[in-house]
Amino acid sequence: MRLLPFEYAVRNLGRSTLRLVLSVLGSFLVVMLVIAAVAFVRGMEKSLIGSGSPDNVILLGAGSAESVERSELSPSVAGLVSASVPGIKTKLGLHYVSPEVHMSLVISARAGEDSTSSAVIRGVTPTAYLVHKQLRIVQGRAPLRGHDEVMVGQLAATRIGWQPEALEVGKTLWFDNRPWTIVGAFAASGTVMDAEIWCPLTDLQIAAKRDSLSCVILTLDGADFSDVDIFASTRLDLEIIAIREDQYYRQLVSFYRPIRLMVWVTASLIAMGGLFGGLNTLYAAFAARFREMGMLQSLGYSRAAVALSLMQESVLISLTGALLASAVALILLEGVAVKISMGAFGLVLDAPTLAIGLAAGLILGVVGAIPPTLNCLRQPIAEALKSA
Amino acid sequence: MIQCEKVTKEYHKGDNVIRPLDGLDLEIPSGHFLALMGPSGSGKTTLLNLIAGIDSPSSGTLRVDGLDLSGLSRGKLAAWRSQTIGYIFQLYNLVPVLTAYENVELPLLLHSMSRKERHRRVAGALDLVDLADRHSHYPRQLSGGQEQRVAIARAIVADPKVVVADEPTGDLDRDSASAIMALLQQLNRVLKKTLIMVTHDPKTADYADQTLHLDKGKLMDGRAASSGSALDDEVTP
Ligand SMILES: Nc1ncnc2c1ncn2[C@@H]1O[C@H](COP(=O)(O)OP(=O)(O)O)[C@@H](O)[C@H]1O
Ligand SMILES: [Mg+2]
Fold it and tell me: Do residue A380 and residue B46 have CB atoms under 8 angstroms apart?
């Protein structure tokens, strides 16, 4: 098949500047939206998937497998599991066993302030830094026991809904009726920890007047998950269950499904709107050229050749919009953190996200061109030549 | 040689049947210059479109140099058009976003041809219509007469045997019209193209070897229609 020159499709873009600008803008908005939706959903899932390490096992209070925050178990579990299960990772005689308290607490910047902000506070011992390899202290130091000190994750402010300045090192914040000094900041990119506030375990236990733990997290070395699992299920007195950390977070992903669905539905609806808007524009633009398309066919160009040229034109528009959207997304959305009711995470603007955006632009261009193109080519050449 | 045998074209609009061509018999020898006249709606454009292979008869046969066009697939017919037919329209139908040169080049892109050969042909065609100095002009930068000359260059650049023209001077002033007619006559006399032209204007028709009148889908010129031959130059009324 002999094709029309690509140049013809390119030049056709210039027939109406207004149409060009509007249709590129339409594609830009649709692709921008798709990129934002994908970056959001991928960020959300990555923060959960990335939180779990395959070598880690979480011990939770029986009957609370879906939530660490609701789980309670005896403080003796940490010592017992270290002593009973061989093959837990050690370093200089220290077992990689981290007893932790996870609480969602109302926090405020000043004493007695009426606050509706809540934060996930995690009380930890020094072994937490062994077990959670993803965590790095980026500023200041770890909080010291007995001083009511905390350190904050880099997305904690987003999660709480505060300005980042409120959580700067040196500032004070209030929860459980006492002031806590921020002595450090940490990063645990792509995990839920990134949005948390950490303090020494005992300090949190005292403040919250509890002595139970939320969980014990340990890192396996020679041992298998089944070794820990057997320990958990045979020590009936402890009322604990064991779950692989990565599996725990994977199961949390399913809680996010409604949000993900909502994002997709919203994005699809708006994209559909863009598609129909684009269809409309192309219908009008192509319909104004019926006679010309009849002429091209009278010369001997096949309908497929004419259709392909129209398709090229449409794809040129949509890809221009898509490239602009990718560039703007990289500038505006890169590094942006978002908060949802269940946590905070960073948008993921990586190659797959952008590739999905470009693919959406391509699909928009191809699918959007099909009905107007068929509309053009449906009519016989003789009739097309008669059109105004 | 173009041969129409009992060519009928029908359109069905609900219960109505519109018959722009009704059992038409016609033979046009190669190298002939035929003018078609007739009232509006008499089927002139329809006949031209059938001969040009962009429409097909409802019944009857139409042969061009012995080839029965109704036997060709849509794709074959398109390829045949690109080899055989040059079409000149009343409203020129130039592509507004292409230059005169690029407009004339369009039919050649359907043929295997080196860029150099293409350039030679396009330049030659534009030269022939006296627009050698307008290669890079866009249609909007040309007068109506010049646009039609570009369209003529486009119609002949691929060297087709048959050129059809549908009221080629219908939209032009007298002077431009006679320039166009002189050019068409030259295509017929010098380049030996078979030329079939629709016109409303008897003066324009005078340039042709023969004029036939269509009315309600039938040929009015008794001799040409019934003999099935229009070889005789003297039949022009
Ligand atoms: N696609 C079509 N559908 C229905 N009627 C048509 C169609 N094309 C042409 N006609 C009718 O056929 C008749 C002849 O048309 P045409 O060949 O264009 O006439 P003209 O002699 O003016 O060129 C007209 O009555 C016209 O309305
Ligand atoms: Mg007509």
Answer: no
Going by pLDDT thresholds of 50, 70 and 90, the confidence category of residue A65 is low
| CB-CB contact of A131 with A165 (8 Å) | no
Which residues of B lie closer than 8 Å to A, measured between beta carbons?
Answer: 45-46, 49, 52, 54-55, 74-75, 78-83, 85, 87, 89, 91, 93, 95-98, 102, 106-107, 109-110, 154
Residue pLDDT, tens place only, B70-120? 889 999 999 999 999 999 999 999 999 999 999 999 999 999 999 999 999
| Extents of the domains making up chain B | 2-233
Question: Are residues A282 and A307 in contact, defined by beta-carbon separation less than 8 angstroms?
Answer: no
Under CATH, domain B2-233 is a member of which superfamily?
P-loop containing nucleotide triphosphate hydrolases (3.40.50.300)
The pLDDT tens digits of the residues spanning B45-59 come to 999 999 999 999 999
Of B49, B98, B107, Cβ closest to residue A300: B107
Give me the amino acid identity at A52.
Answer: G
CB contact (8 A) between residue B97 and residue A11: yes
Model confidence at A28, in pLDDT bands (50, 70, 90)?
A: very high
Chosen from B12, B49, B50, B54 to mutate, greatest number of chain A CBs within 10 A: B54
pLDDT in tens, A40-54: 999 988 888 888 889
Whether chain B has a CB inside 8 Å of the CB on A12: the answer is yes
Closest residue in chain A to residue B164, using alpha carbons only: A298
Q: How many beta-carbon pairs below 8 A join chains A and B?
A: 66
